């Protein structure tokens, strides 16, 4: 079978492939199937959330040669739902079918050293940093990078593979703790807030950005995303959306991606990192936008026109972690879903995971309303029902 290099439209009934069986793949399956497509998921977990709802679950490793050939020959287009998919697997699949995003683009984003360079190449500012590939690099790092954050160049997510370092000695200790693998040392910034932009770039170079979300993290994991009516009209939001589009085009990235930005106390903004997939901070699009980020992913793969990204109303997203299945004494009990769903404007999305564990993403709640204030009040009620900490002010 020859590679598909044109932008031929894939009609409903065609097969779309997904590497990765997590919750992002599950929500993609629902969206693609609602458009009439069949979905094949490649994932080694027999109980994967996406595999449970896909039309076909190929239960194999992400680099299994026979599984990749099967997926590539069956599906007219393939994508991925997590950033640490082997880039070589995407390059292999490209011999058989359309792959969005490409293995080359994902390979760059998987490596923080290469990622930082590409973001800068796109003309987007980043925090001062140094590539650290040896102890000598740390010894030679500019003293202005301390205090800083040492991040492994690869395989870090949700705060993992990161360490705050006050000085060079702490950085040396952290580097050894990370197994002396390649890292990036970033200078700590006077951070006021974080925002993110989810966008889609089509095979025809069309780019559509969703409204910016303001994000709050706890223990390195996204806890709350807010899309307010007021924030969408300011200059910073527009600048962030333009910067995210510039990054996508510089990477020649086709598909859905998220760019996270730091907002500094002096009003400046810096790009933090790129996620080559739909993103937690874009979950609000499932209930607050004309087109969700997952439908947009399917549209890109099928060479359909990109959907309308307009937000229809203000919204907030609460992440649901496995912690809420346990009471103060550590005893397991079911969350009070009835109390949650009694709150107006609430939509519950659970991921079908069989075991709740502390820190494990089990689902999310989207809350919509007619005004920012109404959304915050409803979110406070939803958080109370689930025993999730939430600052109403």
Structural features, described:
With 393 residues, this protein is α+β, with helices and mostly antiparallel strands. The protein has helices at 23-34, 65-74, 87-93, 103-109, 112-121, 135-140, 168-177, 235-251, 285-288, 293-301, 337-341, 372-386, and strands spanning 15-19, 38-42, 56-58, 77-80, 98-99, 129-132, 148-152, 162-165, 183-187, 191-201, 207-209, 213-218, 221-227, 255-264, 269-275, 315-321, 346-350, 361-368. Strands 10, 11, 12, 13, 14, 15, 16, 17 and 18 form a nine-stranded antiparallel β-sheet that branches. A five-stranded parallel β-sheet has the order 3-2-1-4-5, with helices on both faces. It has a four-stranded antiparallel β-sheet with strand order 6-9-7-8. Helix 1 packs across helix 10 (293-301).
Secondary-structure topology with pairs:
Elements: E1 15-19, H1 23-34, E2 38-42, E3 56-58, H2 65-74, E4 77-80, H3 87-93, E5 98-99, H4 103-109, H5 112-121, E6 129-132, H6 135-140, E7 148-152, E8 162-165, H7 168-177, E9 183-187, E10 191-201, E11 207-209, E12 213-218, E13 221-227, H8 235-251, E14 255-264, E15 269-275, H9 285-288, H10 293-301, E16 315-321, H11 337-341, E17 346-350, E18 361-368, H12 372-386
Parallel strand pairs: 1-2, 1-4, 2-3, 4-5
Antiparallel strand pairs: 6-9, 7-8, 7-9, 10-11, 10-12, 10-14, 12-13, 13-16, 14-15, 16-18, 17-18
Helix pairs in contact: 1-10, 3-4
